[in-house]
């Protein structure tokens, strides 16, 4: 089971999620997001200034679109990108994800800076905290199928 820590300080427009896994993270579309959402990677140009876009589809056929821009070139050490939900145009956040090897495990840390503490709180209010835990659980299940843990 991954060790997960979510930090959201009062009145600070930042959310930090840290989780440690028993294998390197991989296969994004198979684990990212809550269970009820199927993620489709529409476009990824993983280079400085490159753009990305993905679609989350729920069981009722509703679609949720997310997009952004990479800042710096993504590497095995980390990714910096903007994230914007089409349902809230103009409310852009900056996300940094780092990967740190720790022997047989990987620590994944995601720091997201919102335009305001109110934006961060609104994201958490709409089940984002639960979605984070579901994503981590899905990644653990995927890793268990791919990598034998002794």
The helix content is: 10-25%
In CATH terms, the superfamily is START domain
User: What is the CATH topology assignment?
Assistant: Alpha-D-Glucose-1,6-Bisphosphate, Chain A, domain 4
Rg is: 15 Å
Element order: H for helix, E for strand = EEHEEEEEEH
Structural class: alpha+beta
Number of strands: 8
Strand order of the largest sheet: 1-2-8-7-6-5-4-3
Domains (count): 1
Uncertain spans: none
User: Can you count the helices?
Assistant: 2
What does this structure look like?
- This protein is α+β, with helices and mostly antiparallel strands and about 150 residues long.
- The protein has one domain: START domain (Alpha-D-Glucose-1,6-Bisphosphate, Chain A, domain 4), CATH 3.30.530.
- The protein has two helices and eight strands.
- It is globular and about 40 Å long.
- The model has no long low-confidence stretch (mean pLDDT about 80).
Produce the secondary structure layout.
Layout: E1 3-7, E2 14-21, H1 28-31, E3 37-44, E4 51-58, E5 63-69, E6 78-85, E7 93-102, E8 105-113, H2 117-146
Antiparallel strand pairs: 1-2, 2-8, 3-4, 4-5, 5-6, 6-7, 7-8
Q: What brief labels describe this structure?
A:
23% helix; 8-stranded antiparallel sheet; 150 residues; globular; 42% strand; alpha+beta; Alpha-D-Glucose-1,6-Bisphosphate, Chain A, domain 4
TL;DR of this structure?
With 150 residues, this protein is of the alpha+beta class. The protein contains two helices and eight strands; from the N terminus they run E-E-H-E-E-E-E-E-E-H. The chain has a single domain (22-146), classed as START domain (Alpha-D-Glucose-1,6-Bisphosphate, Chain A, domain 4).
């Amino acid at each position: 089971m991954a060790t997960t820590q979510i930090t959201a300080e009062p009145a600070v427009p930042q959310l930090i999620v840290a989780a440690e896994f028993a294998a390197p993270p991989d296969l994004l579309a198979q684990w990212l997001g809550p269970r009820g959402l199927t993620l489709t990677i529409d476009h990824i140009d993983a280079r400085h200034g490159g753009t990305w876009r993905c679609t989350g589809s729920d069981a009722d056929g509703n679609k949720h679109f997310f997009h952004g821009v990479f800042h710096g070139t993504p590497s095995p050490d980390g990714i910096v990108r903007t994230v914007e939900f089409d349902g809230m145009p103009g409310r852009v956040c900056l996300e940094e994800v780092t990967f740190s090897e720790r022997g047989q495990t990987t620590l994944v840390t995601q720091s997201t800076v919102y335009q305001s503490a109110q934006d961060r709180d609104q994201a958490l209010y709409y089940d984002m905290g639960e979605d984070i835990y579901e994503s981590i659980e899905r990644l653990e299940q995927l890793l268990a199928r791919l990598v034998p843990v002794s």
